Amino acid sequence: MKTKFSALVVALLAAGAVGTAFAATEADLEKSFFPYKNGVPTFPGLNEGTVITTKNADQFKDVIDPALFDTVKRGWVELTVGKTTSFDMNKPYVEASRANMNKAKLGPKLGDIEGFVAGRPFLEEPSLNDPRAAEKIMWNYKYGVNWGDNGTISPFYWKYRNVMTGQVEKTLKVHFNFLNFTHRVEHEPKPEVTPNPSKLYRGIYMHVESPQDLKGTQLLIQRYEDDSKNDDAYLYLGFQRRVRRLATGQVTDSFLGADLMIQDFEGYNDRLSAYKWKFVGAKTTLMPYYYHNSLPLATDMPPEADGYKFVDFHGQGNCFQKITWQLRKTYVVEGTPVDASPIGKRLIYVDVQSNNINREVIYDKKGEIWKTFTIGKAHPDFHHPVNKGSGIPIDDSFSVVDLQAKHCTTGQFKGLIDPKLSPASKFQVQYMRGGD
Q: pTM score, two decimals?
């Protein structure tokens, strides 16, 4: 009997290393998508309206990530706390997660997944005892709802700033388009775009409208379903009038002189197998989740023709979003590059409800904090009218601050969940040659 029990334990441990030792349940789904159903996280002395400054930051250190805490202690930024609220997720995505519960399992190698159809692949609470828990979290991120089946940012104002003086050195006006080729759950064509002979999973397209010296520059990223295959990335330079393919290593170069790289897009933009992942644990953390229409929005930028106004910036060098921060449940994941990289590691804070990356600490090869990265997330029902009811939290602003170089790149944009704006034709090299 003892021998049979030992064999069972070994079998369960082996199952956990490859897939899921215990099947997820409806309760796990509820906990994953509705973590605040029975109450919101709290922390002593931290309430809606609390302003965290250099004077009281130590009191709240346990709910602030290391890089954000550093900037507050320097006196570079103050954090205003907002009410923690549920960002109820896209209903077709939740239903797809329910319909395909327990179908996805990890394969034998990093970057392998088997049986995945659509929705959130892994619904069970991650465990520190599971050596591959971080991989499951990152698969949930990859197959998450960041922009849904199709999304657009238009316009997107990208500003390069000197942290110490606040001088804006350059402003780019661009637009982005996003498309999932496969695992689509809401917008036609479902479940995938056809034909898709290259078996692509996702496409990202960017077009620069200004300044004049960069006008017409385009970027196309094509991610394969097979995680072992490197992304294809193409750059079109208007003044050269030709498309060139980017080498794999260029995803970790400064992109167009900014403080972020292609690999940084959306928090993490690369193959899962490009990093080794470690689950640090679940943590209550202040996260940049807010209601856009309730913020004091920018007055130094003209509103869009439809009346839309952009998020404002403040703090040292105007490098930090002027937003409210919610106390939210997060999963903390540490990523270490597999190949040569200027990055030593990434400390990623994944919001449990949305499975999006909205706070990140980037370390250099010496193990010192290099950059602090914030992606502001707006509730879709309190943003642009087209997003209302979508259940897709909207990436609404970003800030990357290079703490060592004392330089930052900020982003103010109008995100739209409108499939008509991101047709599949935009995500082919031929489209780049034809312009926009």
A: 0.93
